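HUMAN: Quick job: go over this next protein and say how the chain folds.
***
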Amino acid sequence: MTYIAKPKLHHPTLACNAIGFTRRDYEGKISTLCAGCGHDSISAAIIQACWELDIEPHRVAKLSGIGCSSKTPDYFLGQSHGFNTVHGRMPSVLTGANLANRELIYLGVSGDGDSASIGIGQFVHAIRRGVNMTYIVENNGVYGLTKGQFSATADQGSVSKRGVANSDSPLDMVTMALQLGASYVARGFSGDKAQLVPLIKGALMHRGAAFLDIISPCVAFNNHDGSTKSYDYVREHNEAVNRLDVMPPRTAIVADYGHGESIDVPQHDGSVLRLHKLDAGYDPRDRIAAMNLIQQRHARGEVATGLLYLDPGAEDLHAHLGTVPAPLNTPGAGGTFPGCATLERINTSLR
């Protein structure tokens, strides 16, 4: 296979962010996915979000499993840490890395096959534990690498490229994430960059388990009439609950708001998430209302996108366990070995 490398030279007029990086500094290798794949649009949105947030690439740890979606971390943030796990095992590896070093920004990228089938148990426990991460599922409803079989998220009655109808009930990972206690839940569409970039920015700035389900059409096997995850179908049935922008850390302004107005929701780190309410009475801080909305829209054949739920006071796994603040590779011997007397006291308390 021929390998084509991107040129390292940058045009001198490229704009830089506040820490001196150009957008090119957040790119990775050239994509080997099919031309027009929605996953490449998600990679572009991640690049844009990290550039706009002034994130130093080396502070990001990106992890993935197996599948078309799990190849994408190679196509963005080439200067960051990366780990490609086995099929469905990304969440546990990310959890272990996060416990060892909380100073990194953790970005887990998975697919509907990787997370909703073989890795569903790992997905469940990572979300319920509140691991401080951004968990992105690039959802196309098929197994692209193995030629288009239905995945667990394929809608019942949707038709494959070969004309076979899916008879199984689908898993809705957004509803699952809400039930499991995720404190930032959103759904996006790879073809709507204006909505997607702020959603990713909000997830990266959130402390706790942030989950994004991104519908990403597979142009090879699931972008035809009869598919409910094609470009045309999603564009025709997309019901955006809000349009938002992410503000850098400043003095928070909190106010009640109504239909057609905006609200600034304080994040745990002091940043502010600005929401514009399009649906009358919709409050993204109400978990039950979010679950009801998703089911109502699904019954109408519509896909609800936008920020569906946010817990501004969420805590992460480190807060639950009371771990030390420093990464485990930084303390010396005195900080990692408590001594015989302390160990004996612990063992005695457990007898």
About this structure: The chain has one domain: 23-321. The domain at 23-321 is CATH 3.40.50.970 (Rossmann fold). The mean pLDDT is 85. Residues 68 and 144 are 7 Å apart (CA to CA).
